[in-house]
Specification:
Layout lengths: L1 H21 L5 H4 L9 H5 L5 E7 L6 H14 L5 E7 L15 H13 L9 E4 L3 E4 L3 H13 L6 E7 L3 E8 L6 E15 L9 E15 L4 E7 L9 E9 L5 E7 L2
Parallel strand pairs: 1-2
Antiparallel strand pairs: 1-3, 3-4, 5-6, 6-9, 7-8, 7-10, 10-11
């Protein structure tokens, strides 16, 4: 009888050992069917988070200079983080006595698209939008820092590379990505790195305004291939010292930005 009990106990202990070793993985990687050493190079090299910070602003809006200062501060403190800054000057403030030299109707149209994408009741300035998915008022520094930090924590396996080749009146841009999804477009923004304006009329009368990361041109191309070439017109005085190109892939139904990068001029 004693021998029988010892045999049964041994069998039970062996069963528990089997369950522990094969039914309960030691890590999340094993739970998903991947050992710790089986991560692909793509996951390791391309999983950095990013933050595309879009600011809608205007020289004719008295509430906008503080937002311009916030984006400048973020630019100074960004370091080598994957933070991409784009300031769009809308044109609907131009009718109040001061025409913003950087304003374009197409930037107003882009903000209207965000009103649809984000289901907003109103359109206003200054307005920050992060990665096309969240928005808040341009004076809210804590929201800006918090949302940027949150975005940087979201890892991605998407990748995008751009190379610009200047021609006489245009730029030929070669793009390559590992991302090809339905309802996506490649956007290429021509950015003027900084500028100063002396405002003589309107709500900011007699103020000198300092701007950074001014979008001077925004072009979009439906994404149908993972690699190809697109062409954009050169802006006036385009040069590597004062300008840069920012490219990003955006879902044209939801507004979500999926991946971004810069291109050298």
């Amino acid at each position: 009888m004693k021998n029988t009990l010892l045999i049964l106990a041994a069998i039970a202990l062996s069963g528990l050992f089997f369950l522990n070793c094969f039914m309960f993985p030691d890590s999340q990687e094993e739970l998903m069917g991947n050992s710790k050493s089986e991560k692909t190079n793509l996951e390791i090299s391309n999983n950095n988070g990013f933050a595309v910070v879009e600011l809608f602003t205007s020289e004719g809006c008295s509430s906008c200079p503080p937002a311009d200062e916030l984006i400048a501060k973020l630019h100074r403190e960004a370091g080598n983080k994957n933070i991409y800054l784009l300031a769009y000057h809308v044109d609907y403030w131009d009718r109040l006595g001061w025409i913003d030299q950087f304003s374009l109707k197409e930037f107003t149209n882009r903000q209207q698209k965000y009103q649809d994408w984000l289901h907003l009741f109103i359109m206003y300035t200054p307005q920050f939008i992060i990665n096309g998915t969240t928005e808040f008022a341009g004076y809210n520094e804590s929201a800006l820092n918090g949302k940027v930090s949150d975005a940087l924590e979201i890892k991605t396996t998407a990748d995008l590379a751009l190379r610009a080749k200047p021609d006489k009146d245009s730029l030929e841009i070669h793009f390559k990505t590992n991302l090809l999804e339905k309802n996506t477009s490649l956007f290429v923004a021509t950015i003027q790195k900084q500028a100063t304006s002396k405002v003589i009329r309107g709500e900011n009368k007699d103020n000198t305004l300092h701007h950074i990361q001014i979008v001077r041109q925004l072009n979009s191309f439906e994404l149908t291939n993972k690699e190809g070439k697109v062409t954009v017109l050169k802006t006036n005085n385009l040069n590597p010292k004062d300008f840069e190109l920012i490219g990003f892939i955006q879902n044209t139904v939801t507004g979500k930005i999926l991946i971004t990068t810069k291109a050298d001029l």
